[in-house]
Write a structure and sequence with these properties.
Blueprint lengths: L1 H10 L4 H17 L8 E4 L10 H4 L5 E5 L2 H14 L5 E4 L5 H4 L5 E6 L8 H14 E11 L6 E3 L16 H9 L3 E3 L1 H10 L2 E5 L8 E7 L1
Parallel strand pairs: 1-2, 1-4, 2-3, 4-5, 5-7
Antiparallel strand pairs: 5-9, 6-7, 8-9
Amino acid sequence: MQAYKRFWTDGYKSTAVEEEYQEQAQPGFLKRVGLKPNHVFLDLGCGYLRGTIRLVDYLEEGHFYGIDISEANIQKARARALELCKHKPNLAVASRFEIEEIWPNMRADMIIAASVFTHIFPRDVEECLRRVSRVLRGKFYATIFKDNTVPVYGGWCGVCAEHVDDSHDSSPAMRQQNFESLNFCYNTEWMLKAARNCGLRMREIASTEIYQYMLEFSPL
């Protein structure tokens, strides 16, 4: 998780075009799958609200929650919300998805983890699923790079955002380079088993709203 923190705090830099696209794409997707103004919403790995800033005022006051491992990101998120939003989001730093410890009475109608599972190891994915299952009363959406040719996970092959037939022909060197850069692919069959072990059912949506493969989780 500390490697993930370094990746997002010091490593990844998005362009203005990417910023604008994600500001529209994520809220648009979440509204289409049923997010309503009266719902309680949680953004896991919210960063500086790069993808969900437009939901702060869409939701009723106090219904937007967000956690991130980076204190710098949370500080930036608070500043952006203060400047751009009428409502005040509930934001907190969390190192291990400690949702219940931070907000004991919060129960979420919808949760998203965009570009989180693409950069964390299997044990952290399982930890996230366990903690989400305790606060989820609706749907949880998470994006991955999908690769069912690997047993559990492996380095991103470079084309996973586009493929639909589990065919990968990139070089081992590219996979290793992406692995070292914390760009991971996941096997959805393993993800399904992990979800069940955490009390969740999983459905593959195959949406590329944010250039990745979308999974939907809900309580068993």
